[in-house]
Amino acid sequence: MIEDPLYGYKGELRKFLEKCNVKIGDRVRIIRKDLIVEGILMPRAALSKRPYIVIKLDNGYNIGVRFTDKVKLAKVAEGEKLKKYTPSIKVEYNPKLPKVSIISTGGTIASRVDYRTGAVYPALKTEDILEFAPEIMNIANIEAEVLFSIFSENMTPELWSRIAEEIAKKIWEGFDGIVVPHGTDTMSYTAAALAFALRNLPVPVVLVGSQRSSDRPSSDAAMNLYSAVLVAAKAPFAEVTVVMHGETADVYCLVHRGTKVRKMHTSRRDAFRSINDKPLAKVEKDEIIIINDHFKPRDKNRELILENKFDGKVALVKTHPGMSGEIIDFLVDKKYHGIVLEGTGLGHTPVYIFDSLKRAIEEGIPVVMTSQCLWGRINMNVYSTGRDLLAMGVIPGEDMLPEVALVKLMWVLAKTRNMDEVKKLMLTNIAGEINPRTMFSTYLN
User: Fold this and answer.
1) What does pTM read for this prediction?
2) Using an 8 Å Cβ cutoff, are 233 and 102 in contact?
3) Is 344 a catalytic residue?
4) What is the pLDDT of residues 149-178, one digit of tens each?
5) Annotated catalytic, 34?
6) Catalytic: which of 75, 125, 126, 185?
């Protein structure tokens, strides 16, 4: 909650606004030689040093008006006193509908934005979620909670374990599906972690996020959440998935397998793509349209097995021209337990880091090879470099994404440090992370 009436405004600009007797939330008119605009005075980024006055226009967009000694500002209307948002919706249980648990971990989608002031509040209760997207009451009985609220770049293997444990509790309580709101930046890492941690899933687990905040007219939050709840409640598969916009308009969302998805664009609403696989389904309006019929079917009688331990001492290293073997040596010296290489092409590294890789393997540190190309699969038998790496003991990562191989190796090393067992598990398809062959049709689908 914003307590400073001029949050983010400093120096001469703050003095100017104080002299004009305005505060955040007031409706103001700004007059400049070439411009007249009217809207709600908004807070600024606290670290911003640029002299801009931020206002929200009536169309919902924010703009910044550069402050100079020529700018005039007048208060048009007094803003309401800032207060915490209180939902007004009433939750009613419908015995004919399935039960879906929403376990929030943070991110844009898990926050409610006060349209008037820009203040951001976490959606803490079931009522918050339902008022944000009331249509989901027609799909399922919702129980919502906040497990924690963090930026997704601050996610850790320890937090993956907590999410998996909480999901397991809800499944054991009899919920028909689980939705996990999550920040988009590392959502694919968490999806992979949950896919390995939640063995023998009986119901769907759906991660969902949004690229645009709910105070923007172009927000994808409500549609993504609605689609995620629909999948959790009614989809025929029982896998960990990611549900996000499938294209830039508001026509459909795609359901991606949690071990085959990556965020491929920084800002587009359709940023998420299935890599080396087809999406499981498309969600258009109230219909789930199956695209990929290779999935584990829903079965509530299936007994969930929780294996939610991860070894955080695993590193992901991107190879590049001129790189030094010192990077590998550093990880060995720091007692890392595993290394995933993001190699070039079919699975190659510069020959001048071979000695360091040999040292790592000889000291019992498994090294897994993936490709920077993303699409396609590792084939280390084609060229001599790949064959030499295989001979020294590097494990081919098949068609796994580098981040999925990282998460999987963390999961495997929490189970065993035996090199033979590690290799066997890394080459075993456990959660849809390895396809037996690469299909041409999955490229840039």
Assistant:
1) 0.83
2) no
3) no
4) 888 899 999 999 999 999 999 999 999 999
5) no
6) 185
Q: Under CATH, which architecture does the 99-306 domain have?
A: 3-Layer(aba) Sandwich (3.40)
Query: Locate tokens 């939610």: which residue?
Result: 308
Q: Is 282 labeled as catalytic in the residue annotation? A: no
Residue among 23, 56, 99, 108 flagged as catalytic? 108
Confirm whether 299 is a catalytic residue.
no
Q: Please name the CATH architecture into which domain 11-77 falls.
A: Roll (2.30)
pLDDT digits (tens, 9 = 90+) for 350-368: 999 999 999 999 999 999 9
* Marked catalytic residue, from 105, 117, 184, 442: 184
CATH architecture of 314-426: 3-Layer(aba) Sandwich (3.40)
